[in-house]
Specification:
With 337 residues, chain A is mainly α. Chain A is built from 13 helices and no strands. In chain A, helix 6 crosses helix 8, helix 7 crosses helix 8 and helix 8 crosses helix 10. The longest helix of chain A is centred in the last third of the chain and has 38 residues. Chain B has a single domain, classed as MetI-like fold (Orthogonal Bundle), CATH 1.10.3720. Chain B is built from 12 helices and no strands. Chain B starts with 28 loop residues before the first helix and ends in a 10-residue tail after the last helix. Classes of the chains: A mainly alpha (337), B mainly alpha (293). At the A-B interface, helix 6, helix 7, helix 9, helix 10 and helix 12 of A face helix 4, helix 5, helix 7, helix 9 and helix 12 of B.
Chain lengths: 337, 293
Amino acid sequence: MIRRNPWLYYGRKALAFLLSVLVLSAAAFYIARLAPGDPLVSYYGDRVERMRPDERARAEEKLGLNAPIHVQYVRWLRGALQGDFGISYKYKTDVLEVIGGRVGNTLILGGVGFVLIFGLSLGLGLFCAWNEGRWADRIVCRLGTVTSCIPEFWLSLVLILIFAVNLRWLPSGGAYSVGGTGGVGDRALHLILPMTVTVLGHLWYYAYMIRNKLLEEARAEYVLLAKAKGLSRRRVLFKHCLRNVMPAYLSIMAISVPHILGGTYIVETVFSYPGIGTLSYESARYQDYNLLMVLCILSGVVVILFNMIAQIINERIDPRMRDAEIVETTEVTGVGE
Amino acid sequence: MESKFVRVGIRPVPAPRLRRARWYEGKPIASMFILGAILLGCLLCGLFLPKDPAYMDLFNVCVPPSGEFWFGTDTMGRDIFSMIWHGGRVSLCIGFLATLISTVIAVTFGALSGMAPRWLDDLLMRAAEIWLSIPGLLLAALIQAILGRASVVSISVVIGVTGWASIAKVVRAEVRRLRGSEYVVAARCMGAGFFRVLWKHLAPNFFSSIMFMVVMNVRGAIVSESTLSFMGLGLPLEIVSWGSMLSLSEKALSSGAWWIILIPGAFLVATLLCVTSIGNYLRTGGSREESNL
């Protein structure tokens, strides 16, 4: 299909994508409105409790909360299509502005974290496969199992306790010093601990997977042939085995993007790092509907988009994978989430 | 008669001594022992604990570990030693309950998908994949927020409902493999219903292959509960669990009270490690052929 008519192929993908986003937005809208809690509180603060009924009705009308849900949704959708996502009740400014101020921080944490996880897990997996069964492999496997058992939030707490509270080497939270200029060095210093947690929390899951996949490849017939031809052990592992493992690894890494971002949400909250994670957490707690909607859709778009990318990688690079299951991580790695 | 042939160059190889493996070899004894001790302590904590875990002793707030308070007290003056065991009860209970819920959903869903015609199978599996690609913790937090105030049962249901998809995929693959076999066909010919075939014929055959994932699910559920409670989205402070004990850690950090953070966390991590190594033991068939590399 992809070779015969790429336009049709990608057009279909785009259509499916748009449809999913539409369904997602409707679902998120209804769920947010059905959840308990009072959105007026986030706009007016404690004043809400002292409001008279007529004041309350006027406030609801002002924010458009008195219409039936489907009318509200259509109104929201009409605005959204013109790029107007409403105002955040808590920050009293345009939603996109609030998010725009934070999204960079999350992208730095998540993006650099993703690259580190990708590179390190590849290296670690190769190292373990190279030393299969020897003490180096065994020690790394043991350590990896231990790190994969430590919940991210607790690791963050312990690191803060050691490096920020006791040793006072690193700051305990935030993205830059209060009142500081926010220079590169300052930001990097604030990134060390959250980045460590993000990377350690995911690293072994992927490293172990690539190790096991490589070991599976090492038992294939073609390895025997390559060795009989006189190729060196390194060449066989790095050129032949790795190349066969790569498509599966790439697609799993594409699927992992939402999970790594989801992990940064926890880390951000613990380190009070001003990113999308802390923002979602706040907006869910204070019923900041407009903000919550956009954040939900944003997360959903990331999930759907990277699933599609994984599918395309599978179908383009490795024809053998066309009918295969994409998400097989838990079975292969045995680490699970 | 003496042989004319003299054997040259073959060194006699002694036959490998066959020794029966002892019962404990290859089994995660240490993990089983530690997990057993924690389980027993949590179950019997009412018998040996001197203090009430909910009692707030306001004269002894944030006391470091000492003779009277073995693990110290937290920022609300509660005795951490008693809280550990009572909290373990709640945490482990949620772990098992959530896993039970996920497994039931996963087996039903997976078997349904495995036995279904092609189009329904595709539809169900696509749904499971979408479910799997959403970070589970975010989903659990969202559902819990909608349900409102959390209790032990409600949080188990939330975690159970979010964590079934990966098991369902394995069940479906196994059912697909098994459904053509003679005994299943025979049972269906005799008029056995869906659930009877599932229970009597399919489940015993695929149970061993999902056992590992079920054990890992216990681990995942305990982690989810503690993370949610820690962030203030799960159990409230009054319901003591390992996660809700850690939710006090922000105050503990500012006062440098390490015992409030390290002790419950150490119990949590120890439990997770034991569960993992038992799970790994259940998974490996062990025998792997020789590497060609």
